[in-house]
Amino acid sequence: MQVKQGIYVIGLLITLMASSVLYAQNDSKANETKNPSPRLNPVVQSIPVPLRPDILIEKYADIEANAVRLLIHPISGDFYYTTFEGGVFQITNKNGLLISEKILTVEDHGINKLQGAVFAGSDLFLCGNTTENNNRGTRGRLVRFSIVPNSSPRMTVVFNTEPYGLNATTWDHGWNALVLSPDEQYIFITSGSRTGHGEIQDDKGVYPNARDNALTTKIFRIPVKAENLLLPNDINKLKADAYLYAEGIRNAYDMAFDPENNLFAVVNSSDYDHAEDMFWVRQGRHYGFPWIMGGIENPQQYPDFMPDPKKDPFLPATSHGMLMKYFRNDPDFPKIPEGLKFTPGVQNLGPDANEYRGHSGKILDGDNTGVTISTFTAHSSPLGLVFDTKRVLSNEFRGDGFVLRNTLGAKSSLMKPFTEQGRDLLHLDMTYDKGSDNYFVKTTRIVDSFNNPTDAVLLGNSLYIIEYDARAGSIWKVTLPAGSKKVKRVKKKI
After folding, report:
1. Which of 59, 189, 212, 431 is 20 to 30 A from 304 via CA?
2. Gap between the Cα atoms of 289 and 270, Å rounded
3. Domain of 152?
């Protein structure tokens, strides 16, 4: 067998895609555990450094440990953040000091793996997973709280899913990213994979032959005013009810709309040396998982695949998937459904975050080869996607996107062969290409040396970035160059 593990070019593009979660690569041999994502490594605190003189960085607030999401109440202007364990905190000003006050707990919302949060007016939506069957099974859950002054938050259940199996790995990505549609009529929700690359994960036999299912590796769209829905583990019913929006995305841990109301998602790939995708997410599209990630085919789909890092340079010997023998000969791996077409990821033109492994197995830089990749350097964990939707930034940045990379190459055995960079802020200058009906992006590093950055909020020309830490977190304020006035933006084309 010859695995088609190179870069697949369509015109100037490399094909395809899908991906993973808030998931920094673990350098040590991982134990089998039900640790949830984010799977992040505590590191020594660092101070962010601007990479250009017109960017100012200052500490905004010290916060509680294990913070994941950052958001702003659109009416009061107060900052809120959430922790993975289920805490919801409001940041208030007490005599000139910013204080974190816990306003909700797991007991209030029933989500013991809280990963998603977004405001729609005064309504706070929270999303994540509950556990059942003696912590062997799970349900996705979305709830809504009315957050108004001088009143206790009131909860409404938006949906629960039918139960399905957890597994015994760190790859159970769960329900996580939330984004409000521009017309504020829908909530878009990511449900990540319960596998690394589509393999069987049966939780030591409790859920025999379980791979991914109708409730995982997808993006859903739910009406803002929905209540008490039950989402079935039935792909045809989910489509018939118009809740299913897009498929084949390993785990889009962050999503955002651009100024033209296009939805984009950033995702992480598996332990194989796939690039990390960014997708232009469109209704009814399939983005390739588990057959393709980062423009490279998943070799386990071939019946005669025998994993051997000595023969396959794309397969890191120190990876969790290899150490735990999740890369394996898998002749029953599902076949690509006949007639199914995949939509490729956004293509990175560089100059940064565009290193890749070539056909020869060597690490290459797209700046030198002229090859675009889909989309960011392998194992870099892109998070915190935002766009200048109000077009208030300077001409260079107006209407553009920004994304964080959570992994630091110098500290990651999987990313280090590609680069020692990472844990930085990237500027995304995106251009639509009519010929491929896709986007290309020029990617430039503008801030370095964050400590596990996980989420971002753009308010005017100030970008607020939250950091995850097992001891104490931080919020940084990054002031970007502002424009003198609002200018209507015309979609860039190439």
Report:
1. 212
2. 10
3. 9-479
Indicate whether 484 belongs to any domain: no
Residue at 487 is within a domain: no
pLDDT tens digits along 147-197: 888 788 899 999 999 999 998 887 789 999 999 999 999 999 999 999 999
Domain with residue 205: its CATH number is: 2.120.10.30
pLDDT, tens digit (0-9, with 9 covering 90-100), for 426-448: 999 999 999 999 999 999 999 99
Residue 115 in any domain: the answer is: yes
* Residue 57, both tokens: 């960085």
